[in-house]
Design goal:
alpha/beta; Ubiquitin-like (UB roll); Rossmann fold; 2 domains; 8-stranded mixed β-sheet; 3-stranded mixed β-sheet; 7 helices; elongated
Length: 286
């Protein structure tokens, strides 16, 4: 109940009860929070009890099926080249005493994909005999990345393979900070012409912006300077000029493709031996 003075002009004569709704609000919120916390604790305890019960039932099931012969008879690994069997055994931690029903193919796949050389895995379980078949797809080394006098194998996606690697054949060398991250885009363009791509010995990523490619020889080869943007367009121009003019067969040291409407070349020096060969060729013709 509220009391108001008849004289509205005199505010000092107004009378009202104290406002207690903030306290009621705080009290209600506290009560609701308490109920929520108690409910959460109850649900958590209930879920833990259910989870423990399910876990016990699961373990009991595996123990009984193990006695019935559902143990791993063998694990077959296919398409393994660089990944060692010791790495696989250490990662899976499986033996003939393990229950094959408890060996989840998805878990096996996830564990094996953590190994440095493995790109993808297919896992199948066969019964009677109880065999786990694992088919590996390993990463291919497309280049060696040199940074600060250290060498790292790079796969076709430009990812660093964190493993020791000794190349058994000539492998493309990429140099420069940021080279692996941009390597995939480069090879997608360059591999459209395998003859030229196979001649690339070094790909140098300049100032984290663009590529310089060295063909045929690190010391005396042709350096192709690619632009920062529209690399595919510049590469197509190089192939077109090479087909019409045979530019990559000439004695050049630099082919600069950085300007959109120009191709700048630098002619290499002719050695004394080559000069003598040219001279003898002219004399024989005369």
């Amino acid at each position: 109940m509220f009391f108001k003075a008849k004289d509205k002009k005199d505010d000092s004569k107004k009378v009202s009860l104290p406002k207690d709704w903030p306290y009621r609000l705080i009290g209600n919120l506290f009560l609701l929070s308490t109920i929520f916390c108690l409910s959460l604790v109850t649900i958590t305890i209930r879920d833990e009890l259910i989870s423990k019960k399910l876990f016990d039932l699961e373990q009991s099931f595996y123990a009984k099926t193990t006695k019935l012969g559902f143990t791993i008879d063998d694990i077959i690994i296919e398409n393994r080249q660089r990944t060692s069997l010791k790495e696989i055994e250490r990662k899976l931690e499986l033996n003939r005493e393990h229950n094959i029903l408890s060996s989840n193919p998805r878990t096996i796949k996830e564990k094996l994909k953590e190994l440095p050389w493995i790109k993808d895995v297919t896992v199948r379980r066969n019964f009677f005999p109880n065999v786990i078949q694992v088919s590996l797809k390993e990463k291919n080394v497309k280049a060696i990345w040199q940074l600060n006098n250290k060498f790292h194998p790079i796969d076709e996606d430009g990812n660093i393979i964190e493993a020791e690697y000794i190349p058994h054949k000539p492998t493309l060398l990429i140099v420069g900070k940021g080279a692996p991250e941009n390597f995939k885009n480069l090879i997608e363009v360059a591999q459209k012409n395998p003859e030229i791509y196979d001649r690339i010995k070094v790909a140098n990523y300049i100032s984290n912006r663009r590529w310089n490619l060295i063909l045929d020889s690190i010391d005396h080869g042709i350096t192709i300077k690619l632009p920062e943007e529209e690399v595919e367009k510049a590469w197509a121009k190089l192939i077109k000029i090479d087909k019409s003019e045979g530019i990559l067969k000439r004695k050049l040291t630099i082919i600069d493709l950085r300007l959109p409407n120009k191709v700048i070349v630098k002619i290499g020096k002719i050695s004394d031996k080559e000069k003598e060969t040219i001279k003898n060729s002219k004399e024989s013709k005369t």
